[in-house]
Design brief:
Blueprint: H1 8-14, H2 17-25, E1 43-47, E2 53-56, E3 60-61, E4 69-70, E5 79-84, E6 91-96, E7 102-107, E8 118-121, E9 126-130, H3 131-134
Antiparallel strand pairs: 1-2, 1-9, 3-4, 4-8, 5-6, 6-7, 7-8
Length: 147
């Protein structure tokens, strides 16, 4: 089995219950409850499933919505958008391109000077890698984001 397509059983054993529900069933964590909502250390946020880079702290901002918010993904190829009409709302779901895992939603009410998008992402779908540990953990190619 490839690293990108872990079985549900493997994921259930690897992830917290909340991370499993968010990434595999499109659940949403309670606003202001996620560990990365009010969190502003330098580093990158990676996929909790496969450790691939998703977002940088250089693109994170406080949108006041209760979830970590970013102006853009670390690379335009790491996420894919899908129409989401659940709960009687029209939204755009953000998924990880290679795994299809649910990350959150993207809205058009972000900072206009940075493109106008707000990637509203569940903390449960993320793992934070501090800048000082990026090289050691194999993410040195992203260190240039902080210069």
């Amino acid at each position: 089995m490839s690293d990108n397509k872990k079985s549900k059983k493997d994921l259930k054993n690897k992830l917290s219950k909340e991370a499993f529900e968010v990434t595999q069933h499109g659940a949403t964590e309670t606003p202001f409850s996620g560990q990365y909502d009010d969190f502003y250390q330098e580093g990158i946020y990676v996929d909790v499933i496969n450790g691939k880079a998703l977002f940088s702290s250089t693109d994170k901002y406080d949108a006041g919505c209760g979830w970590p918010s970013f102006t853009k993904p670390i690379d335009s190829n790491v996420t894919q958008d899908h129409r989401d009409s659940s709960f009687g709302m029209e939204r755009t779901e953000v998924q990880r391109t290679d795994t299809g895992s649910h990350l959150g939603h993207v809205f058009t009410d972000g900072p206009t000077e940075k493109g106008g998008l707000r990637y509203c992402i569940n903390s449960a779908a993320l793992k934070f890698i501090p800048k000082k540990k990026m090289q050691k953990n194999g993410y040195s190619k992203y260190l240039s984001l902080f210069s």
